[in-house]
Design brief:
This protein is α/β, with parallel strands linked by helices. It has seven helices and seven strands.
Length: 277
């Protein structure tokens, strides 16, 4: 058809560079692969050197553009310096996706009853504050370059609604609630809205992607999940199942692309309908 838009092409990221923070996690690996599969240069930022080199090499072997750099987002004191080094090597990214999950070793004790002030402060600092500061550094770099860009922040359903504690009943997961997690993810969603307002005039889009429960995901690790929890969770979602990492990655790729060119300030729920009822 004459003058028909290239709709499929809008989903591609040819010629664009994407920084993926936490690019080796359960969801992060799929995000890194998704970006590369639609033509983008996937710069995988994480702390596992051997895994990162192997994963980027595997993507390259498939004919995709990918690179790995050791990057610790919890190293707050050196975030500015380390980010500047990335810019020096790869130039300003067109896309910035943060799906990292930095946390302290006592993360499982972040309930109201067990959490300490020290742990609470540390987790807010290395998670929420690192997300906020990296997003700011990226946006300012994008302003300086003048080409706009897309920033995708990973939030959570539990940054938007309260936790349904009944899904933890009969499991080995304790009471389930996390004071730090709710504060962190709620803060990320709020910052996204402000940044979209401030940076919109520079054609920089900022959105939050909020996954629901993901198969294989236990406290940020790819451990086998409690079968009772999976059953309890699945019963409460309209789709009657948990999500898969690729179902999250495809949405991240969409938000990064020109197919989402008029979406900014959004909190996109990818949760099988969990927050709809």
């Amino acid at each position: 058809m004459k003058n028909m838009h290239d709709y499929l092409g809008r989903f591609r990221l040819d010629g664009k560079t994407a920084f993926v923070v936490g690019g080796l996690g359960l969801i992060g690996k799929e995000v890194s692969a998704a970006i590369a599969s639609v033509g983008g240069m996937s710069v995988i930022l994480d702390v596992n050197e051997s895994m990162g080199q192997a994963f980027s090499a595997a993507l390259q072997k498939e004919g995709f553009e990918a690179a790995y750099k050791n990057f610790d987002c919890s190293n707050m004191a050196n975030l500015d310096t380390n980010f500047s080094m990335l810019i020096d090597e790869f130039d300003c990214p067109d896309v910035f996706i943060n799906c990292s999950f930095p946390r302290t070793d006592d993360w499982g004790k972040s309930s109201f009853r067990n959490i300490t002030l020290e742990s609470f402060q540390k987790n807010v600092d290395i998670h929420m504050n690192s997300y906020a500061w990296l997003a700011r550094l990226t946006a300012e770099a994008m302003v300086k370059k003048g080409n706009g860009g897309s920033i995708v922040q990973f939030g959570s359903t539990y940054g938007i609604v309260g936790q349904d504690l009944t899904i933890y009943e009969g499991t080995n997961m304790g009471e389930g609630e996390s004071m730090a997690y709710a504060v962190i993810k709620g803060g990320i969603a709020s910052l996204t809205r402000l940044m979209s307002s401030y940076y919109g005039k520079y054609n920089i889009r900022v959105n939050s992607l909020c996954p629901g429960g993901i198969s294989g995901h236990v406290s940020g690790k790819s451990d086998k999940q409690d079968s009772v929890f999976v059953k309890n969770y699945s019963k409460k979602t309209p789709l009657k199942r948990m999500g898969n990492p690729d179902e999250i990655a495809s949405v991240a790729s969409f938000l990064a692309s020109d197919a989402a060119s008029y979406i900014t300030g959004a909190t996109l729920m990818v949760d099988g309908g969990w927050t709809a009822i």
